[in-house]
């Protein structure tokens, strides 16, 4: 019996030692973090000013004030397009704001189109298209491998005067296509200038 209690005491001691070691190592790491934070703070006094001024322009880039187009839809809904930007991966991302301009709350109009794969994933802007009249080509919202549209989803009821930020991602038209027609089911079409 003494051997059994001795083994249990040995195991308990090993657990306590391991726990203490872990706490000490975590404590050492915690002490080192402020030192590494202090170094950038000392060297980053000038970069902080740059970061602050850099953050302001990036905020204006993310929240553009320019409106490229406004599409009017049913029940007082409007979509204001604020950016249509190509990226290096061959995609075009369109961002904007959906607004209920009426005095009453309304369900967001159905803008997902009629494609079975898109419809089964709920309300979205999956029916949006871009039309390149010169290239004679229509671009549909991209979908993931499960058929979900790469766009804002889960749209429900929007309060009177309420807004929601929206996005849609398309394959990028060629660089020669600078103007495209943006079409959204149940909304008036509009012309977009691509950057």
Question: TL;DR of this structure?
Answer:
This is DUF4352 domain-containing protein. Residues 42-59 have a biased composition (Polar residues). This protein has three helices and ten strands.
Fold and architecture overview:
- This protein is α+β, with helices and mostly antiparallel strands.
- The chain folds into two domains: 2-62; 69-193, Immunoglobulin-like, CATH 2.60.40.
- Helices cover 33% and strands 28% of the residues.
- It has helices spanning 2-43, 45-62, 116-119, and strands at residues 69-72, 77-86, 91-100, 106-107, 129-132, 137-140, 157-158, 163-171, 179-183, 190-193.
- The protein starts with a helix and ends with a strand.
- The model is unreliable at 29-64 (pLDDT under 50).
- Keywords: Signal.
What is this structure's SSE topology?
Layout: H1 2-43, H2 45-62, E1 69-72, E2 77-86, E3 91-100, E4 106-107, H3 116-119, E5 129-132, E6 137-140, E7 157-158, E8 163-171, E9 179-183, E10 190-193
Antiparallel strand pairs: 1-2, 2-3, 3-8, 4-7, 5-6, 5-9, 9-10
Features of this protein?
DUF4352 domain-containing protein, single chain, 195 residues, Immunoglobulin-like, signal, alpha+beta, four-stranded antiparallel β-sheet
């Amino acid at each position: 019996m003494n051997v059994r209690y001795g083994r249990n005491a040995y195991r308990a001691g090993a657990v306590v030692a391991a726990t203490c070691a872990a706490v000490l190592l975590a404590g050492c790491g915690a002490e080192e973090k402020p030192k590494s934070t202090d170094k950038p703070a000392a060297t980053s006094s000038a970069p902080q000013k740059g970061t602050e001024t850099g953050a302001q322009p990036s905020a204006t880039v993310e929240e553009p004030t320019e409106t490229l187009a406004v599409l009017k839809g049913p029940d007082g809904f409007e979509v204001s397009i604020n950016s249509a930007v190509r990226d290096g991966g061959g995609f075009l991302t369109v961002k904007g704001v959906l607004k209920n301009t009426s005095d009453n709350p309304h369900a967001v109009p159905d803008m997902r189109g009629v494609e079975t794969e898109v419809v089964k994933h709920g309300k979205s802007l999956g029916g949006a298209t871009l039309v390149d009249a010169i290239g004679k080509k229509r671009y549909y919202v991209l979908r993931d491998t499960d058929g979900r549209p790469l766009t804002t989803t889960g749209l429900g009821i929007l309060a009177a005067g309420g807004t929601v930020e929206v996005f849609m991602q398309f394959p990028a038209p060629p660089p020669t296509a600078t103007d495209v027609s943006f079409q959204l089911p149940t909304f008036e079409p509009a012309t977009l200038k691509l950057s």
